[in-house]
Amino acid sequence: MERISEEKINEIRNSADIVNIISDYIPLKLQGKNYFGICPFHDDHTPSMSVSKDRQLFKCFVCGKGGNVFTFVQNYENISFLEAVKKVADKVGIPLDFTPIKKVDSKFKEDYEIMEFATKIFQNNLNSKEGVKAKEYLLKRNITDDIIKEFQIGFALDNKTYLYNVLKKKNYDINKLDDLGLISKDGIDAHDKFINRIMIPLTNLDGSTVGFTGRIFNGEDLAKYINTKETAIYKKGNLLFNYYNAKKYIRESKSAILVEGNMDAIRMYSSGCKNTLALMGTAITKEQVEILKKLRVPIFLMLDNDAAGELATINVGDLLTHASVNVKVIRLKGAKDPDEYIVKFGEKAFQDVIKSPLSYFDYKLEYLKQNKDLSNTNELVSYIKDVLKMIDSADNLTKEITLKKISEEYNLDYEMLKSEITFKEEVKQPIVVPNQVVKKDKYQICVNYILYYLMSDAKYLKIFNSKLGFLKNPEERNLITEIEYYIKNHDNKINLADFLSYAENDDKIRDLVHNICGVVDVQDLDDNIFLDYIKAIDNLMHLDNMKKIKDKIHTETDINEQLKDINKQIAMQKKMLEKKKEV
Hints:
Strand content: 5-15%
Number of strands: 16
Distance between the termini: 52 Å
Oligomer: single chain
Shape: globular
């Protein structure tokens, strides 16, 4: 992973007022000395997220999400930590020369290496004399050289063993090539999986090639598309085509367009709609729903203009709205898909259509009317029942508006319609103290607070070392070691906002720090409260040791060892009594 120096990260954080940055994303209102807003990380209805200008930290009192300015941007925009640093740097006007490097799971390092190498081979083929016709086909469809380069589009030669022979010379294992879906084994023989096709790389969410779509281009009577089979690194339902390229433009436009096929996405991208993603089919998985939800933007459904596409729009729309995603619908009249529409009517007409989407709710109301004669009483009743069923899980305002609309449109009694559904009683969302959300033992609660204090001010490390100096769990001790190292190398100073950035260098430390921040809420550091936690931990560990000695006495068979343990027990009891007298 490309690095940005810690000094640069701290310079950016210290130049960025967390209140100003978060205000770019959600409205904040000053209440007392802190700012509050609706938390974007859970289904929040009351302002439960606090932002501290003094400490440059944010914290939600319901879901527990918290951190510094980089943490907020990272989670809100669903980007990496370093991408968040770059984003904040841009906002505060600090030049930062940084290009994110694609993440690669070390377990599958060779798999990704092979797929990247195959991508380059296909690209070279497209620019060779054998690839002239395929290149001409792409250019005729207005897929320019720039788009070809950006999507790394290539060509599989009309040769059954070309790719296999090239990869074999690189000493790649034939079984691995078969597992990755690049070749097909036939006994001791093998041949290329993709032959005489335009090759479109399929990338994961981090931009690494994990598979391919091979498309015919010369009208042969073959399957139009061949896709890579499911592999260890390619799970179709876990990705969206063009996600890696489009996410920047999705954030800029604050919207995403979802289409069926990757050629539609490429065509739209080349026409200026760079915020386009593709499902590579009509079905949507729960993993893809979660990816779209994390984008936190309206999703415009632009699926094919046929019966299958209409049904898919309903299925996808229902799943997304159930996940609290804002869904809109764009239907293309006079063409089957975006690619055909752009060819027939031009890019300007296409852009005009995009500017006038339907809300998913209105689209579904119209969809339910299809193939129904609403002048027929039975079919009207059927339609009204479908609508009532549709709005049953909606919010009260949507129910109210829909019922009034149906009442007026079909001259039906509003109260009668209202009696057919249940209006939810509006209940204010309770504020939940984070450490009550997950029940923890007393030891863990005290430890979390102690570690929080240690990360917030260097003076607490001195108190900890003089009064206690030890915690029983290895991960807690590792964190204290990191805190000591940090303080030693930062002029004997520490603050939580900067330490959160420092913790990003180690996954285990980062996860522990974020977990502590999620369950601990401290508005003002207090020496006496910190000492209370220290005493509580000391007492708990003492009791734990007493129990271990007691258990050992009962199970010990050697009388001499048993006497030694009894003496230890007496000494520990005396020590405990002395501590109580001191208090």
